[in-house]
Write a structure and sequence with these properties.
Layout: E1 2-5, H1 11-23, E2 29-31, H2 37-42, E3 46-52, H3 60-68, E4 77-84, H4 91-101, E5 105-113, H5 128-150, H6 161-179, E6 187-188, H7 197-201, E7 207-210, E8 213-216, H8 225-229, E9 235-236, H9 248-251
Parallel strand pairs: 1-2, 1-3, 3-4, 4-5
Antiparallel strand pairs: 6-9, 7-8
Bound molecules: flavin mononucleotide and iron/sulfur cluster (2 copies).
One iron/sulfur cluster is lined by residues 8, 186, 201-204, 206-207, 216, 220-227.
């Protein structure tokens, strides 16, 4: 068994690591951008695959990875884990359908509510205590799920036909374009000091530092990792001002 995740602000990393730790203490959990990720997947028949929901879809980097490596999924047993700030009809179903198309068996789907990660939007922002409580509830859910799985019962969050309709009608129909490709809309203001932290963190290697300033290319997957960590708070994407640098470790 192996855990694979994309995580911008740490929520999904925490959830996949906790779930896999409860199921198999010897199993590893790796980020999607790890150098040997495909080899590790090849060597394991069961995969716990996690990512943050974006507009009731999986981030483009996640869908791109699944499609580019379509040969990896034949006969794999996969549990899809989608974390979210509020709502995702079929966050887990979005990748489950793709994996199935490439020959995988879907063990189930898990939706876990976590703190919001959109640092440059006031929408869904909570107090530190409220976010702590959200994480406490998430941890309880993960513990419950791990016990069920040990008894051979897998949760079906987001992989039913009704969930598919809820994700499609509730969000994808209106926001599909947001996740249809990578974006070139990342903004870095002139106050950047060129420290290079964002460039070193980006899972897409989409940021580079030139002449003492950071600049971004057109392959951002909207994970918000750079935005949540820039010491100067000078990076934005969907909004124009950093409201809060959301990060799992601030709330745990
Ligand atoms: C671009 C973007 C879009 C998002 N869209 C949704 C959404 O449609 N529904 C939702 O509940 N949460 C949404 N979120 C919140 C994240 O899914 C949630 O905070 C997630 O746990 C972040 O995980 P991470 O820290 O592993 O990146 C969105 C976050 C981002 C950055
Ligand atoms: S982390 Fe912020 S200050 Fe540092 S290079 Fe990136 S944008 Fe500039
Ligand atoms: S540029 Fe920033 S938000 Fe975009 S993929 Fe890289 S780290 Fe994530």
């Amino acid at each position: 068994m192996i855990g694979i995740y994309l995580s911008g602000t740490g929520n999904t990393k925490h959830c996949v690591e906790k779930l896999i730790g409860l199921l198999d203490k010897t199993a590893a959990a790796l980020p999607l951008e790890a150098a040997d990720v495909t080899r590790q997947i090849k060597n394991n028949d069961t995969v716990i695959f996690g990512y943050p929901t974006q507009f009731s879809n999986a981030p483009h980097m996640v869908r791109d990875f699944i499609k580019r490596n379509s040969f990896l999924w034949e006969n794999k047993k996969i549990l899809c884990v989608a974390t979210m700030g509020a709502f995702s009809g079929d966050g887990a179903g979005c990748t489950a359908r793709l994996f199935k198309k490439y020959g995988a068996t879907i063990l189930g789907g898990v939706h876990i509510k976590m703190p919001d990660s959109v640092c440059d939007s006031k929408l869904l922002k909570k107090s530190i205590e409220q976010n702590r409580e959200i994480i406490r509830q998430a941890d309880k859910k993960i513990e419950r799920i791990a016990e069920q799985i040990k008894h051979g019962k897998y949760p079906k969050d987001g992989i039913t036909w009704i969930a598919h309709m809820a994700g499609f009608l509730g969000q994808r129909l209106w926001f599909y374009k947001k996740t249809a490709g990578y974006t070139d809309k990342l903004k870095i203001s002139a106050d950047c000091t060129g420290c290079g932290l964002c460039a070193s963190l980006c899972p897409m290697k989409n940021i580079y530092v030139k002449n003492g300033k950071a600049d971004a290319g057109g392959r951002c997957t909207m994970c918000y990792r750079c935005i949540s960590r820039c010491p100067q708070k000078v990076i934005t994407l969907l909004g124009d001002e950093v409201v809060e640098q959301c990060r799992y470790e601030k709330y745990c």
